Amino acid sequence: MPQAKPTVGFIGTGVMGAPMAGHLLRAGYPLMVYNRTFAKAEPLIRQGARFAPPAEIAAACDVVITMVGFPEDVEQLYLGPGGLIGQAKPGAFLIDMTTSSPELAVRIYETARRRGVRAMDAPVSGGDVGARNASLSIMVGADPADFEAVLPILRVMGTTIHRQGGPGAGQHAKMCNQIAIASGLLGVCEAIAYAEKAGLDPEKVLASIEKGAAGSWSLSNLGPRIIRRDFAPGFYIKHFIKDMRIALHSARRLGLLAPGLELVLGMFEELAGRGEGESGTHALYKWLTSHML
Amino acid sequence: MPQAKPTVGFIGTGVMGAPMAGHLLRAGYPLMVYNRTFAKAEPLIRQGARFAPPAEIAAACDVVITMVGFPEDVEQLYLGPGGLIGQAKPGAFLIDMTTSSPELAVRIYETARRRGVRAMDAPVSGGDVGARNASLSIMVGADPADFEAVLPILRVMGTTIHRQGGPGAGQHAKMCNQIAIASGLLGVCEAIAYAEKAGLDPEKVLASIEKGAAGSWSLSNLGPRIIRRDFAPGFYIKHFIKDMRIALHSARRLGLLAPGLELVLGMFEELAGRGEGESGTHALYKWLTSHML
Fold first, then answer.
1. Per-residue pLDDT of chain A (293 residues; tens, 9 = 90+)
2. Has A238 been annotated as catalytic?
3. Which residues contact B52 (CB under 8 A, 6 or more apart)?
4. Are B78 and B94 a contacting pair, CB within 8 Å?
5. Residues of A with CB below 8 A from B199's CB?
6. Contacts of A251 in chain B (CB under 8 A)
7. Do A173 and B197 touch (CB under 8 A)?
8. A172-290 architecture in CATH?
9. Using N-to-C axis directions, what is the helix angle for B169-197 and B102-114, rounded to 10°?
10. Can you give the residue ranges of every domain in chain A?
């Protein structure tokens, strides 16, 4: 006889969280959901999820997943008055899938452990497409036994799932992802701006270079959008700035200079100040065209 | 009856040129070769190529291909005393496959045209592996008819062959390739340095991020070498510095700021000054570990 599935709570059913929670529903997990904007939870409720505030979810669920916006939201949700750690059942698992601060992840883990609650960080990459296709890469920072315990649930949402180390390690791994993206995207933008200024057909340049040593996901996926001046997100500049600030802060704590990350963050901050915060990250290209010599 | 194949001259039979010339030999082109270090031409001579100095090659061949080191070498070879343009047969094709300056390519084209000689630039990407497998990407700057005329010869050496525009456009396209690589490589190095400083297993981080938005040729191919501290070239830092200086000079002429390119060039110049010029480009990583906070 199959074991009954644990009740899962999902807090934050936005563009990423909603499809991820939907996969859990379809996999047969009893689901409770919460989102600040109720309307974004409605499709899940129609499919059988029960809406409840976070404290109630924490008190009722064996596993609580959070996918919210900023580290401040995570901190408030876990550690604030009536927060998840205070309300959770002993032995419950709290999985933060938000891209957030490694230090905060460690603080949450330790606070939770003192109450007999098992917290872990499990940020993802793969974007809204990966969330919809259940093909996310999930980077987990957790005690080994906790990781094993929740692995069946993570497998419902992702295909590439690695425990990167203890608490905070998932967030650190996600920072590596964002750091690699940052400078890589700058290279793509500079290459396309150069091609255009030199009078080349940038699409033909992409065809010549994308399969070789210059090849990257950004070049092949964001390059064509830059060329046709389609700066819709994708991934918002304002969110990438959040991630890059965490990464830079964390790099400095580790004693590491990250000149590429720092350069690109400064360019994005300038763009955000000019009202580009809700453009896609590939609007980094606009920095170049607005700073011609 | 098949048309007799034109006699081809190949000047510069180093790590790239030797296998490229070998493909032409095996494809049935009568071949003359020259290299400053005679020994590097010997295997081709044993396969039937005839060794001769550049002026003699120019006087005898229908098509002359050059694959040498630096723009100064190209300039000397084409425009210097006894140079290719002065010696070439009227109507001959001169194809410079060296990564060199777009301006110089235009100057060579114009000088050649006044003598009824057809010059073009056709730098490649794909490295020594691409040269050996005849899978190079070849970026051509040429008059359309000249491009069509030499295409059968280029197809012997490469698989991705695009005319990027008139004279110089091939070099410009190659600069786009190098510009995209430069910052992208910095992102890879920073990500790996971060992973290591954060106490993660960098191979596990690569496994989590290389298939997603952070994915790139550099991450998947150079990342593992960085992790095992194998800084053998690959592509020499000293050659990449040459390319990046051309790119930066050219970007400035086009009125384009390229802050990523400029940053990475400075890092490489510092490394070269510390004796790393003959390390592979991924030794950029060493800049980070030698500038810890």
1. 457 899 999 999 999 999 999 999 999 999 999 999 999 999 999 999 999 999 999 999 999 999 999 999 999 999 999 999 999 999 999 999 999 999 999 999 999 999 999 999 999 999 999 999 999 999 999 999 999 999 999 999 999 999 999 999 999 999 999 999 999 999 999 999 999 999 999 999 999 999 999 999 999 999 999 999 999 998 999 999 999 999 999 999 999 999 999 999 999 999 999 999 999 999 999 999 999 77
2. no
3. B9, B32, B33, B34, B60
4. yes
5. 165, 169, 172
6. 190, 194, 197
7. no
8. Orthogonal Bundle (1.10)
9. 160
10. 8-166, 172-290
DSSP chain A: -PPPPPPEEEE--STTHHHHHHHHHHTT--EEEE-SSGGGGHHHHHTT-EE--HHHHHHH-SEEEE--SSHHHHHHHHHSTT-HHHHSPTT-EEEE-S---HHHHHHHHHHHHHTT-EEEE--EESHHHHHHTT-EEEEEES-HHHHHHHHHHHHTTEEEEEEEESTTHHHHHHHHHHHHHHHHHHHHHHHHHHHHHTT--HHHHHHHHTTTTT-BHHHHHTHHHHHTT----SSBHHHHHHHHHHHHHHHHHTT---HHHHHHHHHHHHHIIIIITTSBGGGHHHHHHTS--
Q: Which two tokens stand for residue A202?
A: 């940038």
Query: What's the pTM?
Result: 0.96
Do A137 and A130 contact (CB within 8 A), yes or no? yes
Out of A5, A40, A89, A174, pick the active-site residue.
A174
Residues A125, B207: C-beta atoms closer than 8 Å: no
| Three-state secondary structure string covering chain B | CCCCCCCEEEECCCCCHHHHHHHHHHCCCCEEEECCCHHHHHHHHHCCCEECCHHHHHHHCCEEEECCCCHHHHHHHHHCCCCHHHHCCCCCEEEECCCCCHHHHHHHHHHHHHCCCEEEECCEECHHHHHHCCCEEEEEECCHHHHHHHHHHHHCCEEEEEEEECCCHHHHHHHHHHHHHHHHHHHHHHHHHHHHHCCCCHHHHHHHHCCCCCCEHHHHHCHHHHHCCCCCCCCEHHHHHHHHHHHHHHHHHCCCCCHHHHHHHHHHHHHHHHHHCCCEHHHHHHHHHCCCC
Both tokens of B115, joined, read 């003598």
| CA A54 to chain CA mean position, Å | 20
CATH topology for the A8-166 domain: Rossmann fold (3.40.50)
Contacts for B222 with CB less than 8 Å, ≥ 6 apart: B185, B188, B234, B280, B281, B282
**Length of chain A as a residue count:** 293
Q: Which of A162, A182, A288 sits opposite B257 (nearest CB)?
A: A288
Is B98 within 8 Å of B112 (Cβ atoms)?
Answer: no
CA B92 to chain centre: 23
